[in-house]
Amino acid sequence: MKLNWKELRKTIYIFATEKTVGFTLISIFLGLVVGAIFLTAAGFNPFQAYGIILRGIFSKPSYISYTIIRATPLILTGLSIAFAFKTGLFNIGAEGQFIIGSVVATATGYFLHLPLLIHIPVVIISAVLAAGIWGGLAGYFKAKFGVHEVISTIMLNWVALYFQNFLIYTEGFQKPGGETSYSIQPTANMMILKTWKQSAAGREWLLQHPFWKDLLRTPANWGFIIAIIMAVLVWFVLNKTALGYRLRAVGFNRFAAEYGGINVNKNMIISMFIAGALAGLAGALQVVGVSHKVTLIAAMEGYGFDGIAVALIANSNALGCILAGLLFGALKYGGAKIQPFMQAPSEVVSIVIGSIVFFISIPRLIKLILSRKNKKGGTK
Amino acid sequence: MLKRIITIFVLALFVMSVVSCGQAKKESGLKIAMVTDVGGINDQSFNQSAWEGLKKSEEDFGIAVSYLESTQDADYAPNMETLLDAGNDVIWGIGFKMGDTIKEKALANPDQKYAIIDYAYGDETPVNVVGVVFKEQEPSFLVGYIAGKMTKTNKVGFVGGMKFPLIEKFEYGFKAGVKLANPDAEIFAQYADSFTDAAKGKAIANQMYGKDADIVYHAAGGVGDGVIEAAKEQDKYAIGVDRDQNSLAPEHVITSAMKRVDNAIYNVADLLVKDEFPGGTTVVYGLKEGGVGIAPTSDKLVPAEILEEVEELKAKIISGEIVVPSTPDAYTEWIK
Q1: What is the pLDDT of residues B2-47, one digit of tens each?
Q2: Which CATH superfamily includes the segment(s) B137-258+303-335?
Q3: With 80 as the cut, is the pLDDT of residue A185 above it?
Q4: A175 — contact with chain B (CB < 8 Å)?
Q5: What torsion, rounded to 10 degrees, do the Cα atoms B108, B95, A291, A71 define?
Q6: Does the structural domain B31-134+261-285 have CATH classification 3.10.310.10?
Q7: What is the mean predicted confidence (pLDDT) over A223-251?
Q8: Domain residue limits at A318
Q9: A333 at the B interface (CB within 8 A)?
Q10: Backbone angle region of A43, left / alpha / beta, with phi > 0 → left and psi within -120 to 50 → alpha
Q11: What's the gap in Å between the CA of B153 and the closest CA on chain A?
């Protein structure tokens, strides 16, 4: 078969430089190439490594489940940052909002005693509200005193971290002799079949049924569905409602928006509230679905910071955050496996992720690489 | 250029799909793997020490070893399962943070052997699990004694990572040792709420030195790097932990309370090779078992007569004549 290279090249060039999706895909591919170069340099077969990663993600139901569980909080923190981006704010505070969400969820999940169907919504809503207020605080500082949100949210991250540690040390909340809080009540649990699969009967049954044993060994829960619903909701609010229009207008040009009669300050607070609420939801879902408790943390866990990369890869598109979150979760989960299976350093995955973000941040470089003109023109 | 990119891309897709269908190669002999806690493999502390122990067993027993790093608490369970699927004979959890996860996985997979550092399940230890704990209070007691003898200002300090029972073992063992050597000594104790924040360790140590303390002991992982840094700058003394930390400041780290995680891991590997894996039990490493001790470099800065007294104390602890307190209550009792 004869390929028309010229035509193809042109199509790819247009696809990669003028279509966001194409550009993102090329960046991801280039990130993988960089990872492959490092693997080769370290003396490992990159195809074998990527094969292990792919198999580590797809070859068992539990792997897919873990990838999704891993991706769920990242989708939401990514959404949080993407939402703020769209409205002209840089929310570095997703980390702290996540912490507030998880600690409030644990507190309401443990201290309140409510019936099954009411408990989970109460836990989630209170966590979301608290984290929203936490985020809104940064918006308020900006609106009222002109404190830049990057500065205030970074500082609020640390306040949140030490607030969580402080609460865990509180008597009645700390599990005696440990460095964790008590676990939430069973009624606030969203993990599928949690009590049953840990019971003697459940264990017995699962030993007979390998497929279900494999699937249920993961903390499978409904969080992913909620994350997808939120992504659609965020997309809808931003693009199809008057509120979203106002928020985006502030993001495009706050002075023009103000001239157009939009209350900029109010919208900044709203925007940070929603961004905080989304990150807080990530924290709440992590607690009710996966961890069921909070632990003393000595350093940031990185859910919020990874969310920045997710938002960048998704180009701040709400629906794109789902895919970017899944990619991120898959790389992080599957990527770790190259260590035990072929003794290759799993840091390569961080290099891949870093490179992807890097390539996405410098669109001009990709254009240069792909540009035919540049090739013919040689060095300038 | 473009042609090349496309060719590589197509090739990559093709090879990847081929490789994906293949199977990982089977290795003969025994396999042991470990999951690090969030400190990571190069933490200058017990994760690193554990990996050194595994590497040594690889050399001596020909065991295939590997590790998996955790970056978040939520990683422990999936990492355990990855290692389970990789077909290991023993899976180690490094650090008490994995206590619940190991137990859950051990009950769900009765045929897999597990082991954990710094966690004791007592009577509830599943038959396929070994818990390994250390008597951290014992070496802390010995370095406390050295500090109590060597202080000129009668003031010494303790910097802990985070306040929970494991680190309190260091604190109260140390305090008891200081008080034995020097009943009048004042002891400052503070927790950094971190195991990584060296700047904070430095600030706390500086504050203690400012209050006239001349020796500070730390049990705080990376925070301790700052403590030692402060000792160097202020020309005061510091005491290291877990590994022999004298090399970090040869003129200022007088001794270190060593916790030989590597020895423990090596011993379990040895038992596994002999087919004597001590499943269902908790193994305790104290001075008696050689699992803890003071650093061999102590003789550089500590006077020989003090070290002789330390040897006597060591013998008394081993014989059971001295029981070193490890909790606040035991310490209050002991002080009387």
Answers
A1: 566 666 555 555 555 444 443 333 343 899 999 998 878 887 778 8
A2: Response regulator (3.40.50.2300)
A3: yes
A4: no
A5: -90
A6: no
A7: 93
A8: 71-324
A9: yes
A10: left
A11: 33
